[in-house]
Amino acid sequence: MTIIQAIIIAIVEGLTEFLPVSSTGHMILTSSLLGVENSSFTKTFEISIQLGAIFAVAIMYIKRFFRSFDIYKKLIVAFIPTAIIGFLAYNFIKEYLFSTLIVSVTLILGGIILILVDKKVVKQVSRYKEAEDVPLKNAFYIGLIQCISMIPGVSRAGATIVGGVFNGFNKKQAIEFSFLLAVPTMLAATGYDLLKTPIEFTHNEIMLLIIGLITAFIVAWIAVKAFLAFIERFGFAWFGWYRILIGILFLVFLT
After folding, report:
1. d(Cα 8, Cα 29) in Å, to the nearest integer?
2. Which DSSP state fits 126?
3. How far, in Å, are 65, 114, 213 from residue 59 at the CA level?
4. What distance in Å separates the CA atoms of residue 220 and residue 52, rounded to the nearest whole number?
């Protein structure tokens, strides 16, 4: 992997981590398009640089984390299904699901679901005053739905937003809960992956990781602000059509 390739992949990560389009799927497809070798370091790089994007959101929402203790209880409950299933399915996911074919298909299917959900969410009024008012059982259901995003191409953000909508959140609350849940989920996923990956980084690989982290942080900061403004005005349907288009293109040319 060259520095230019690392920067491009990190830009893709920062742009897509919190959008309902699958950052992992886009990085897999980008790496394939750039001709990057599918090595242990490449897979670790693609997961590790997500920390840069996560830190961007953690800083942006830091006041939100201190506003109410209830939000921690709901996030912990929502995180439990992902932690258990992720631990049990880790080896299977890494071995069999990181392919352009799977990513292309799940991008298309996820796009169709987003378009349908957009019609539901337009007029939906929240059952709750704040995101932390969601009952524990509903937070758990959102966490279960998030587990589907372990399949590359599904999108963690997309899964949790859809899960939030079907558990009583309005559009704004679903996005906020998705952002907040991303912090413990991605920190745990990245940390576990680093522990499970038997790799000794070279000086060049460490440099690539640092460049990737910084790039993903900066791009994610900008992307989140743009995403919130876009969703408020246009909704989720455009992301659905985008997913379908990209999925078809990669299905035709890369599989």
Report:
1. 12
2. P
3. 10, 28, 15
4. 8
Distance CA 129, CA 131 (A): 7
Amino acid at 242: Y
Q: What is the CA radius of gyration of the chain?
A: 17
Distance CA 72, CA 45 (A): 29
Structure tokens belonging to residue 38: 């599918």
CA distance 217 to 252: 32
- The predicted-structure confidence for 202-239, as pLDDT tens digits, reads as follows 888 889 999 999 999 999 999 998 988 888 888 888 99
Q: In whole angstroms, give the CA distance from residue 107 to residue 122.
A: 22
What are the residue ranges spanned by the domains of the chain? 3-253
Structural contact between residues 192 and 86, judged by C-beta atoms closer than 8 angstroms: yes
Q: Going by C-beta distance under 8 Å and a sequence separation of 6 or more, which residues neighbour residue 88? A: none
pLDDT surpassing 90 at residue 244: yes
Is the torsion defined by CA of 174, 179, 184, 185 positive or negative? positive
Give the rounded percent of residues in the chain with a pLDDT score beyond 70: 97
Among the listed residues 31, 33, 34, 13, the one whose alpha carbon sits nearest the alpha carbon of residue 22: 13
Cα–Cα distance measured from residue 139 to residue 123, given in angstroms and rounded to the nearest whole number: 22
Dihedral over Cα of 126, 132, 133, 139: its sign? positive
